[in-house]
Design a protein that fits this description.
This protein is an alpha+beta fold. It has 3 domains: 66 residues, Uridine Diphospho-n-acetylenolpyruvylglucosamine Reductase, domain 2; 131 residues, Uridine Diphospho-n-acetylenolpyruvylglucosamine Reductase, domain 3; 81 residues, UDP-N-acetylenolpyruvoylglucosamine reductase, C-terminal domain (Uridine Diphospho-n-acetylenolpyruvylglucosamine Reductase, domain 1). It has 6 helices and 18 strands. The strands form 6 sheets. Strands 6-7-13-11-12 form a 5-stranded antiparallel β-sheet, with helices on both faces. A 4-stranded mixed β-sheet has the order 1-2-5-3, covered by helices on one side. A hairpin with a 5-residue loop joins β11 and β12. The relative contact order is 0.14. Bound molecules: flavin-adenine dinucleotide (FAD). Flavin-adenine dinucleotide (FAD) binds next to β3, α3, β9 and β13.
């Protein structure tokens, strides 16, 4: 497998900002992944796994290590059991379309959410009451420190809201198996209609490009100060709406979307420093008004120091 040097990352993430990767690899099979991990170990390099870059902000200084961007997209279908095993590099929207074409239902609840299967399992993507972990029954993972390849079940992931084991250990998701439901013709037609409806609904509510989706995660109850006579609101967008940043706050070439107060968009010429300065301003506004400091759901990559307020 080819390991490239000094590869631009600004065309490989949704914000379209950020510097270069010192080394870059696109494995298509599990042996490539192990070879890339070995290369990193021999050269004492940090590793970052890149999906579609739909939930990351890369530092303008880039990533001083090895970026591994999985490109394995194979699909293994067991119609009798209604399961699909899919490579981590497959895009979720494509997987949803393929599943519907096969009459396999369930994943259409995530229609319109960009990203690869790897990135989606990492964060356990969610939309209203649905979590991806409700469908995942097994996976193949690689330990990037030891090269160990193992089969794991749903419990191994310790899934929660925005949470999975992939976030703590040096684990690489190689493929994932989803348990779906084999639908009759009418059910499949209904599911397809639902998928279109979700995409239409989302396109009115969220920006479609140069964003990472929700920038901040919602609050935990203990992060919100007690307000006598008031119930705690955990939705970060509720507070951001109240300080009037939506469609109004801009720093350099980054601004808060006019569609959603928790979604930031970049414009031509934007840098990641613009996004960071905008985010810090938003944190300061919520700190001053409500005494709360929201933290990112978006992953920050390649920053030498944590660039936001804690
Ligand atoms: C317009 C828009 C709307 C969105 N709406 C939603 C939404 O409704 N709900 C929701 O939950 N999210 C939403 N998101 C966030 C985003 O779609 C998801 O987080 C998505 O799963 C990111 O996938 P990715 O491949 O782009 O991952 P990346 O952004 O490339 O990476 C994200 C993290 O996953 C890790 N990762 C990637 N692949 C692997 C792998 N194979 N093994 C281990 N770790 C890996 C990366 O190292 C990184 O830490 C939205 C984003 C956008 C841009």
């Amino acid at each position: 497998m080819d390991i490239q040097k000094n590869v631009k990352l600004c065309d490989k993430n949704w914000f379209k900002t950020g510097g270069v990767a010192r080394f870059y690899a696109e494995p298509i099979n599990v042996h490539d992944v192990v070879a890339a991990a070995l290369f990193a170990r021999e050269n004492k390099l940090a590793i970052f796994i890149l999906g579609e870059g739909a939930n990351i902000l890369i530092s303008d200084e880039g990533f001083d290590g090895l970026v591994i961007a999985p490109k394995n997209k194979q699909l293994i279908v067991d119609i009798a059991r209604a399961t699909i095993t899919v490579g981590a590099g497959m895009s979720m929207p494509q997987l949803i379309r393929d599943a519907l074409d096969l009459g396999l239902l369930g994943l259409e609840e995530f229609s319109g959410i960009p990203g690869t299967v790897g990135g989606s399992v990492f964060i356990n993507i969610h939309y209203f009451e649905f979590l991806l972990s409700q469908f995942l029954i097994g996976a193949t993972v690689v330990n990037l420190e030891t090269g160990e390849i193992k089969k794991v079940d749903n419990a191994w992931f310790n899934f929660g809201y925005n949470q999975s084991t992939l976030q703590q250990a040096p684990w690489f998701l190689f493929d994932a198996t989803f348990q779906l439901k084999l639908g009759a013709e009418l059910e499949t037609a209904y599911a397809r209609g639902r998928s279109h409806e979700i995409i239409r609904h989302r396109s009115r509510r969220y920006p479609k490009e140069r964003t990472c989706g929700s920038f901040f995660r919602n609050f935990l109850a203990e992060e919100i100060p007690f307000m006598p006579g008031k119930e705690k609101v955990l939705f970060v967008a509720y507070y951001l709406d109240k300080v009037g940043v939506k469609g109004a706050l801009r720093v350099g070439n980054a601004m808060v979307s006019h569609l959603h107060a928790n979604m930031l968009v970049t414009m031509e010429g934007a840098t990641s420093a613009d996004v960071i300065a905008l985010v810090r301003t938003m944190q300061e506004k919520l700190g001053a008004e409500f005494g709360i400091t929201p933290q990112p759901e978006c992953q920050l990559i390649g920053f030498k120091e944590y660039p936001l307020h804690r």
